[in-house]
Amino acid sequence: MAGPSKDTWKKTRGGAAAVMKTMTARQMEAFNLFSGGLAGTVASTITNPLEVIKTQLQSSNVADGGLFGTRSPVGLAKKIMEKDGFAGFFRGLPPTLVGIIPSRSAYFYSYQRCKVAMGRYAEEGSVPNALVSGLVAGIVGNTLTNPIWMVRTRMQIMADQSAGQVVYAGYRDAISTIFREEGIGGFYKGITASYWGCTEGAMQFILYEQFKSRLIKQKNKQRAAEGLPPTDQLSKATYFVSAAAAKMAAAIVTYPHEVARTRLREQSRGGMFKYSGMWQTLGLIAKEEGRQGLYAGMGVHLMKVVPNSALMFLTYEVVRGWLGEFTIVE
């Protein structure tokens, strides 16, 4: 990726030379893509142990109590450590590292482009703009990367061999086995639940943009009283807290789709797939396990996604502010 172009010089009123930072539109787009992906990579690597525990809690292997004999996050962590050691907490990390950059990059890139395009019909920061932009961003990201997350989930869920589930020898074995036994469609299991999960992203963006808009208005009101010019920037701490609050609210409201997606991606038990669609899955979980089943693993999930998302949004805002210092050139 080419870096920012060389600084050019221009004359100020006093005749002194000042630096004007320039960057081409293509360079700016590439930097936006890379920064969004890098933020997601760092955050996801740090929180991968929580992802592994959460996925176990969501699975039917743990729900029926037969595989580990516990539904406690701490109890599961102990079992994972006993079975696989420290490396067990990083199951599924390679697909994450492969998929997170294209996933997050596509997500933020699509969001930014859609937000600007929608600006002709709905003001940036408004609920309609954030809703449409968030939905589009989520659909694009999920469509491109669902096969990666499918493989990750299969590798993270501890196989119940007593139910005929296979212990994959590695990622290549997992991919070839899924393709051989389930076809191309096997890699897109859970995508309907992922699309439904786009409402979480849209809700998060709506809340985030609303929080940000109100805080900027409040800040500019104070600045006006002090005789200072208006600004469109907030402190890094404010961006972080706003993103965290938005993610927490959105994740709690839409969480059951996360459980449904994991169940849909599980291996068959006794040669039969129990779950066949998102609504059928949610209905079956509600009937057999009740509310506890629908919200299994939510506490661990929030511990993972809230700081993860807040870090990504903070990075996005910092990079966006930095790029705002550049003048776009041809």
Automatic annotation (TrEMBL):
GO terms for molecular function: pyrimidine nucleotide transmembrane transporter activity. PROSITE patterns: SOLCAR. GO terms for biological process: pyrimidine nucleotide import into mitochondrion. It is found in: Mitochondrion inner membrane. Its main location: mitochondrion. InterPro entries: MCP (IPR002067), MCP_dom_sf (IPR023395), MCP_transmembrane (IPR018108), SLC25A33/36-like (IPR049562). Solcar repeats lie at residues 27-117, 125-214, 237-322. Belongs to the mitochondrial carrier (TC 2.A.29) family. This is Dinucleotide transporter 2, mitochondrial. It comes from Seminavis robusta. The lineage of its organism: Eukaryota, Sar, Stramenopiles, Ochrophyta, Bacillariophyta.
